[in-house]
Amino acid sequence: MGEFELIERYFAKLGAARRDVLLGVGDDAALLAMPQGHELVACVDTIVDGRHFPSGTRADDVGWRALAVNLSDLAAMGATPAWATLALTMPAADEDWLEGFAAGFAALAGVHKVALVGGDTTRGPLAVTVQLLGHVAAGTALRRSGAGAGDLVYVTGWPGDAAAGLALLEGRLGGQGANRSALEGKFRRPEPRVAFGERLRGVASACIDVSDGLAADLGRLAAASGVGATLRARELPLSRALYALAGEQRARELALAGGDDYELLFTVPAAARQALAALSAGPGSPACHCIGEITAGRGVRLLDERGELRVPPGWDHFAT
User: Fold this and answer.
1) How many CB atoms lie within 10 A of CB 113?
2) Is 304 found in the same domain as 163?
3) Residue 50 region by backbone torsions, left for phi larger than 0, else alpha for psi between -120 and 50, else beta
4) Is residue 184 a part of any domain in this protein?
5) Highest mean pLDDT among 20-34, 161-175, 300-314
6) How many angstroms separate the most distant Cα atoms in the chain?
């Protein structure tokens, strides 16, 4: 099967059908219609076999994950996703693998009404790059830079679950049964908080998605805002599955530094706490946990009942 047959068979009609796609897959570039009064939001992520997912990961999970990590970035901006481009590098045109990959990508694209509008395929070590484009009403995007002293720090969901799932897949953590399945599922198929990110506009003062570890990503948000932050270790939400398989100490470490959660970490002024509670009570909203507060100064402090603890570093591709 040649490159152009591959594109026509698996990618020409992949994703949602959208009226704002004036010209999609098949030309030199796509033509897209922006909604009036909105700003374009763009992000791009690459996932590499053996680095971002274990070698041998099911193709449909790779397809899902390639889109999910980008959707999470748009969620952190409060943006609505719309269009994607895909650059796929693979060792060979394996039709079974391509069918699975396309199915996983399409399943998540359908949920969020994302159209695939272009891309590229080439031969080489397995790597997937997705660029995601969306939009947000002018002047309303969430940013990392809006937090102020006195704001409360929240996180959605259950940080650490995905990192534990990867540890199980790689044999660095043991366990069986429903707890193992639940944690592995969090890594294989992250659920980006797109709808909740849209609802946070006008309520959250700053936002970032948790991809490199909660503590490290909070440090990035605080640095962008020119403030400090205090995390309360005992307030970290630990899922029952994570606690059961990892125990309290390791579960806390995974929650702070594990990464791959693709949850939203955000700040809310104290005066907006009731507004957040109303949002969180809405149908389909994730659990939200208050885990600390923004302070004057710089850096992230981690406290428990005995005093200050070391803040673990997050993921860095080029750390030595």
Assistant:
1) 13
2) yes
3) left
4) yes
5) 161-175
6) 63
In the structure encoding, which two tokens stand for residue 6, read together?
């591959």
**Contacts of residue 154, Cβ cutoff 8 Å, sequence gap at least 6:** 265, 266, 267, 268, 276, 288, 289, 290, 291
Residue 176 and residue 258: Cα distance in Å, rounded? 20
| pLDDT, tens only, 46-86 | 999 988 999 999 999 999 999 999 999 999 999 999 999 99
Q: What are 95's two structure tokens?
A: 């039709």
Could you tell me the two tokens for 297?
């100064």
Would the pTM of this model clear 0.85, i.e. be above it? yes
Task: Provide the CA 123 distance to its chain's centre, in angstroms.
Answer: 27
Sign of CA dihedral 95, 101, 107, 109: negative
Q: Is residue 318 part of a domain?
A: no
Structural domain count of the chain: 2
Name which of 142, 63, 152 is nearest 110 in CA terms.
63
Give the end-to-end CA distance of the chain in Å, rounded to a whole number: 42
* Whether 85 contacts 29, CB under 8 Å: no
Would you say residue 146 lies in a domain? no
Residue 143 lies in a domain: no
Mean pLDDT (the chain) is 92
Q: One-letter amino acid identity for 180?
A: R
* 286 and 158 share one domain: yes
Residue 177 pLDDT > 50, yes or no?
yes
Q: Quick one: 160 and 282 in the same domain? A: yes
Q: Which positions ≥6 away from 306 have C-beta within 8 Å?
A: none
What CATH number does residue 245 fall under? 3.90.650.10
